[in-house]
Amino acid sequence: MGIVLMRSTTSHAFTKLMRQSFPEQTKTLELNTFLLNYVLSNPLVNVALMSLQSIEDVEWTNTVSDRISDRLDLKAFH
Q1: Where does 1-69 show beta strands of DSSP type E?
Q2: Which of the two ends of the chain, N or C, has the fewest CB atoms closer than 10 A to its terminal CB?
Q3: Is the model's pTM score more than 0.70?
């Protein structure tokens, strides 16, 4: 058994909330990169389904997911 998360970045709900709540702080923040790293940082998550509608989407997803050093320490958040 495994855990699959869908729409890690495509629902845009979190991105819209952050940009509305913190417009100045999020101007230079790459929220989709943060979101994918947040999802992949959870040791209970086995797969994060991503929208891959272009080769750029595939390359971006591969780049972000391959950077293991960018994972977040979720224990520090909770």
Answers
A1: 4-5, 47-48
A2: N
A3: yes
